[in-house]
Design goal:
Bound molecules: dioxothiomolybdenum(VI) ion
Largest sheet: 7 strands, mixed
Radius of gyration: 27 Å
Helix content: 10-25%
Shape: globular
CATH class of the largest domain: Alpha Beta
Strand order of the largest sheet: 3-5-1-12-9-10-11
CATH superfamily of the largest domain: Aldehyde oxidase/xanthine dehydrogenase, molybdopterin binding domain
CATH architecture of the largest domain: 2-Layer Sandwich
Number of domains: 4
Oligomer: single chain
Structural class: alpha+beta
Strand content: 15-25%
Distance between the termini: 29 Å
Length: 749
């Protein structure tokens, strides 16, 4: 059972999840659950080879099966208008081409959608899919990262873009590393991992007319999905509607529009009926991206007193044969510590696999596993406490951009984390602590995550009955977006949260970014803040213009609003109701829409979230079984909007980090280029029994430079560094340094 204490004390009681009741009672409607009378069901047929071409498709037996409405493939697809005409003979797509569904006969990866059966019922579609006969011409595929590593290169897109952050980076003196007093070099490996949210990806596609499309699609950004589909099907944006109101987890798998979504839209066009497609768990391994297999080499130089003098960090990740997925793997290393001499390299390896994508703290979770493991290795070599080593190299300003931090309370995080964890009780020597016949290890790691704020709009409406509606096309993939936004609105307007409704997950709402990169609270939260403030001001002006209004002589700064009742100052006993104002002016509602975005401060400060994790593991000296016994995590993400949901996010991040450290690994059989992990029996994620007490702390100091609400992102920083903290604890317990995740028993005995 996860448990958490909060510090500092919660300033006001957290609002419970506004949609909690809908979710736990099953009343929330998810993408696959929208009812349609004439709904047809689709089943995808995917490639069994990793590279080659489709020689022949025999769809006749399937087409003749009961209930079948269509069997769609590249032979008879209605076609995606934006795709270029197919070349004869078919040519492999150049790098940078997003995968084209049912386009030609070429196969790029095992699991590629090659055909789709649409039928009256799901069972009929499944049965007919088993009757489709496909012959392939196989070509030699390359899916093995380790075997092909020497062919990795700078990404084509990076070569073309001189200002790309993934260009080779060097600062300071290149001779600093060879001449360092103490040196260390190590290579760290992270396997392919899959997001595996409990709700699989699903879509219902509905063509309301030949040029009007509505999709109920599980994704993390209704506006970007709308834009993508409009572009693909050459429709005006407003003729594509995307709804994704409830999402059962995503972790990055829903950031882009994937081939199966386009396939379902094509199918609905073909059969002229609403079509539902739900990905089974096996298809979740090849349809919606993954954390790429990544190998990182870190070299470090330091003085004997533990001052870092040089770091080189080379990261190589895998991508598909048609697209380049770049992630922040090496970027944190440039900003994390006050080191004068730093070099980073980033390379990609094209393999015959589907394209990876962002997953749970993408790039930084990968890079910080290597960096924070290496720091621990260096601390051991120097016989220095790992926390002390980090304090000695604390960056007081951003060493990469030579800018002050907008705010940074990392030292306070370290202090709180160490104290709450009892770090002082750690005996320095590995294998020196034991309990009940088990080896006990204490490990820690730092965490950072870049600040992302995108232009966002929100509309705030006060209705005649005093209730408030706030709207923005933002998303909730689980953290409780509506709850936090309601709380922001309630505080500004002085209205009870019970009177506020927050609408999201609908592309017809005011423009907002998708939920990714921990950007929702910083971006959309600011827009909600601004819209509510504008609405309040408008209402106050309307209120002051009423004859004899007590508000006409009030100082704006002194006005106090509670439960929709406006007092000219804190001492005043007389008040005006919002509803009185609307009534007097005979207005059914008053509304304001505001857009909020970053200003010049973006170039004046370096903006990051910071944090740290402390972990205790117990390891069996006999079986090598690792149990995480407790975790203390502390984050500095500026102002905390809602303690309860923030705490849940931190717990979720730590759980993801434990999975990454100890369990999660997608295994491929390279003879076939096919994953052998295809369900939860083979792809292990933590369950309740794996999760110990997790204590969450926040510094909770507003960062006044980032946005009007002082809040930075929390979702991703909660996982960044956790895997390193676990690995460091395992080293402390056992004396064995595992540099290849996950840390399974075979690597310890
Ligand atoms: Mo997150 S990987 O940006 O959903």
């Amino acid at each position: 059972m996860a448990n958490a204490h909060l510090r500092p004390a919660e300033p006001e009681p957290s609002l419970n999840r506004v949609d909690g009741r809908l979710k736990v009672t099953g009343a929330a409607t998810y993408s696959a659950e929208y009812p349609f009378d004439n709904l047809a069901h689709a089943v995808l047929i995917t490639s069994t080879i990793a590279k080659g071409r489709i020689a022949n498709i025999n769809a006749k037996p399937a087409e003749a099966a009961p209930g079948v409405l269509a069997v769609i493939s590249h032979k008879n697809t209605p076609g995606v208008p934006a795709y270029p005409p197919v070349k004869q003979p078919a040519e492999r797509a150049p790098i940078g081409t997003a995968f084209r569904v049912f386009y030609d006969e070429l196969i790029y990866f095992s699991g590629q959608p090659v055909a789709m059966v649409v039928a009256q019922t799901l069972e009929q579609a499944q049965h007919a899919a088993s009757l489709v006969e496909i012959d392939y011409q196989t070509e030699t595929h390359q899916t093995d990262f380790v075997a092909n590593r020497s062919t990795a290169a700078i990404a084509v897109n990076v070569q073309r873009n001189k200002t790309s952050p993934f260009q080779d980076y060097d600062r300071g003196d290149p001779d600093a590393l060879p001449s360092a007093e103490v040196k260390l070099e190590a290579t760290y490996t992270i396997p392919t991992q899959h997001h595996q949210p409990l709700e699989p990806h699903a879509i219902i596609a509905v063509w309301e007319a030949d040029d009007k499309l509505t999709v109920y699609d599980k994704n993390q950004g209704v506006k970007s999905a709308q834009g993508n589909l409009a572009q693909a099907f050459k429709l005006p944006r407003e003729q594509v509607k995307v709804n994704a109101q409830f999402i059962g987890g995503a972790f990055g798998s829903g950031i882009r529009v994937w081939p199966h979504t386009v396939a379902a839209v094509l199918a609905a066009k073909q059969v002229k009926r609403p079509v539902k497609l739900v990905l089974g768990r096996e298809l979740m391994f090849t349809s919606v991206g993954y954390r790429p297999f990544t190998v990182q080499k870190i070299a470090m130089g330091a003085t004997k007193t533990g001052i870092l003098t040089a770091i080189t960090h080379e990261g190589t990740g895998q991508t598909s044969a048609y697209e380049e997925h770049l992630e922040r793997t090496i970027l944190a290393t440039r900003a994390m510590y006050a080191c004068l001499n730093v070099s980073t390299r980033y390379r990609l390896l094209n393999l015959d696999v589907n394209t990876p994508t962002w997953m749970r703290g993408p790039g930084d979770a990968t890079g910080m596993f290597a960096l924070e493991s290496a720091l621990d290795e260096l601390a051991f070599a120097l016989q220095l406490d790992p926390l002390e080593l980090r304090l000695r190299n604390h960056a007081d300003a951003d060493p990469e951009r030579n800018l002050p931090w907008s705010a940074k309370s990392l030292k306070e995080c370290y202090r709180i984390g160490a104290e709450e964890f009892g770090w002082k009780n750690r005996k320095p020597e590995p294998r020196s602590m034991q309990a009940d016949g088990l080896l006990v290890g204490y490990g820690m790691a730092s965490s950072l995550y870049g600040f992302h704020r995108h232009p966002s709009k929100a509309k705030a409406v006060m209705q005649a009955d005093g209730s408030v509606v706030i709207q923005s096309a933002t998303m909730d993939i689980g953290p409780g977006t509506g709850t936090a936004m309601t709380q922001i609105a309630a505080r500004i307007l002085g209205v009870s949260p019970k009177k506020i409704r927050f609408d999201l997950g609908d592309s017809s709402l005011p423009d907002a970014p998708g939920q990714n990169g921990s950007a929702t609270i910083p971006s959309v939260g600011s827009a909600v803040h601004d819209a509510c403030k504008a609405l309040k001001n408008k209402l106050l002006i309307l209120g002051a213009s009423m004859p004899g209004s007590i508000l006409s002589s009030a100082w704006p700064d002194e006005i106090v609003i509670k439960n929709g009742r406006i007092y000219p100052n804190a001492e005043s006993r007389s008040s005006v109701l919002y509803t009185d104002i609307l009534k007097y002016h005979k207005l059914p509602q008053v509304e304001m829409t505001e857009e909020s975005k970053s200003g010049p401060e973006r170039d004046q400060y370096s903006m990051y979230s910071f944090g740290c994790h402390f972990v205790e593991v117990h390891v069996s000296p006999v079986t090598g079984e690792v149990r995480v016994k407790r975790v203390v995590t502390c984050a500095d993400v500026g102002k905390i909007i809602n303690y309860k949901t923030a705490r849940s996010q931190s717990i979720g991040g730590v759980v993801g980090g434990i999975g990454m450290a100890l369990m999660e690994e997608s295994v491929m059989d390279h003879r076939y280029g096919r994953y052998v992990t295809s369900d939860f029996a083979s792809y292990h994620i933590p369950v309740h029994a794996d999760i110990p007490q997790i204590e969450v702390f926040f510094v909770d100091q507003p960062d006044v430079h980032v946005n009007p609400i002082g809040a930075k992102g929390l979702g991703e920083i909660a996982i960044v560094g956790v895997a390193a903290a676990v690995a460091n604890a395992v080293f402390h317990a056992t004396g064995k340094r595992v540099r290849e995740l996950p840390i399974t028993v075979d690597k310890l005995v």
